[in-house]
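Collaborator request, handled under Task 6.
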Amino acid sequence: MALLRFAGLALAATGAAHFAAPKAFEPISKLPFPNDTQAWIKRNGATELALGLALTTDRTRKAGLVGVAAYTLWLGARTAYNR
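Structure tokens returned to the collaborator:
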């Protein structure tokens, strides 16, 4: 569980970084989100922050894991679709 807590904190920090340094995420975000990329950077940052925090506590960890899996599949599908 300590590993999942650490992973959650890392994901939450990455989500927060979307707001602190959005330009750093632009190259990664342009392919899956070619339209309105800046807004999607913020949306993804909020999603990653929430999912990361969900992984940090026992009460919300299962929901966080399901959310991370769904989010990862969705990002992969967006990237594949916009290739």
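The cover message to the collaborator said: "Helices lie at 2-20, 26-30, 37-55, 61-81. The longest helix spans residues 61-81. Please let us know whether this matches your experimental observations."
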